[in-house]
Amino acid sequence: MTASAGAATSGSSGASSGGAAGSSAAGNTAAPAPGGSGGTSGGQFTDGGAAGNAGLAGAGGGAGGGTQSSCSGNGLLCDDFEQYPAASEPAGGWTVTKRGEGQIVVDTARAFSGTKSLHVTGKMNADRANIAKPIEAESPAVYFRFMMYAASYPASSGVHTRLMRIGTEEAASGNPYTSYSLAAYNGVAIEKVNSIYLRDTGTKFNSSNLLNRWVCWEWSVDRSGGMGNVEVNIWVDGRELTLSAAGSSSHGQTSASWDPIDFKIFMLGLDGYQADPQPADLWIDDLSVTPERVGCPDAPP
Fold first, then answer.
1. Is residue 45 over pLDDT 70?
2. How many domains does the chain have?
């Protein structure tokens, strides 16, 4: 199901009392640095980034049913974290932001492909651990694909978290209307920060069938419909989720429509707004951001 924010949210304001519970992370973020050595430039990738993902290029249709790609041609961002030293924070143009005991480091304990992945740990909302990178996306649509192994994820019932975010240069501030996020709030959702969610309440990052294994997550934001007609999707292991609207006018959302936001920065990591004793302990691998859907890779031999 393709969910149009202009249509699917019609008449849904106030459908959930929680809304976007935490509107700002201001004061806890650092401005992303310009892309440095090993980062992207004009949509191209360094040899390390492209080569590290070349193993996906020959994969079959996999669960995603998309067009398999190494993400080194028309990709906007692609990282399998192989090129960074183990036990270190990722470099290559990534800016790291941490608080409390939050950690985000390259790890060899688990990997979907190769020998490394990105390990994220910490508790909501005492801790924080994020990486951010400049991105230039002129295409009307962007598709995100990543593999995630979650040993533990904070409860998504009444706890608002944002796993990934894309938006303007102000996205890291958490200010309203500066980004879209792959979020969790009583279900997995795409949220226009900070307004109405489109979500699947039956699917959560800590659902028992999604823990302790590699899961292929995909999400997309399509701005081609223009004002009031942004369309979004979420897929899990290639299965498209049915998204419904929820939100609260108390957070400034009085219209059910979403309007396009510029794509300038991409962020991922540990980002939450209510305290939760359940810690995050997860690994991310084979991340891609592309103007067309890539689909899920086959499991490595």
1. no
2. 1
Mean pLDDT of the chain: 78
Residue (of 80, 92, 83) closest to 36 by Cα position: 92
The rounded distance, in Å, linking the Cα atoms of 165 and 213 is 23
> Tokens 């230039």 correspond to what residue?
136
- Rounded distance between C-alpha atoms, residue 271 and residue 183, angstroms: 9
Identify the CATH number of the domain in which residue 110 sits: 2.60.120.200
Four-point Cα dihedral 43, 47, 50, 54, nearest 10: 160
Mean pLDDT, rounded, for 44-69? 33
Please give the Cα distance from 130 to 164 (Å, whole number): 9
d(CA 140, CA 260): 9
Q: In whole angstroms, what is the distance from residue 84 CA to residue 48 CA?
A: 9
CA distance 246 to 16: 5
Q: Is residue 297 part of a domain?
A: no
Tokens read off for 229: 């007609």
